[in-house]
Specification:
about 120 residues, mainly beta, globular
């Protein structure tokens, strides 16, 4: 599945859009990917910065060259957010969705998210 595109970040509990992320398309086995992120409601995480920020996120691949995890720290002007994403349970490699968390590393506020 290709990840190189723009994704909507949705709050899985509320079902609302909380931000946008654009991921570059990695080559096979790249260890990281460049991302541009904007949070529409940073107050959910105890932040106020709504600017677009860039981050390098780590990639984890399985033995079949399927991407199985994306994670990394995203620095905003007023704090940092840790992103951890994986395919949903029962994923067959074709669904265009990632699930996980965004967590403020200072105040420990977290949001369950889906990229779709």
């Amino acid at each position: 599945m290709s990840i190189g595109r723009s994704w909507v970040i949705k709050d899985r509990s509320l079902g609302v859009r909380v931000g946008l992320i654009n991921l570059a398309e990695p080559d096979e086995r790249d260890e990281s990917v460049r991302a541009c992120i904007r949070l529409g409601y940073p107050d959910q995480l105890g932040l106020s910065d709504t600017s677009i920020v860039q981050a390098d996120l780590s990639l984890l691949w399985d033995q079949n060259l399927l991407l199985i995890a994306i994670d990394g720290e995203i620095g905003f002007s007023d704090g940092a957010v840790m992103m951890l994403l994986a395919p949903p349970g029962g994923w067959d490699g074709t669904q265009d969705v990632w699930v996980g968390t965004l967590s403020n590393t200072t105040n420990l506020r977290s949001v369950l998210v889906a990229l779709c």
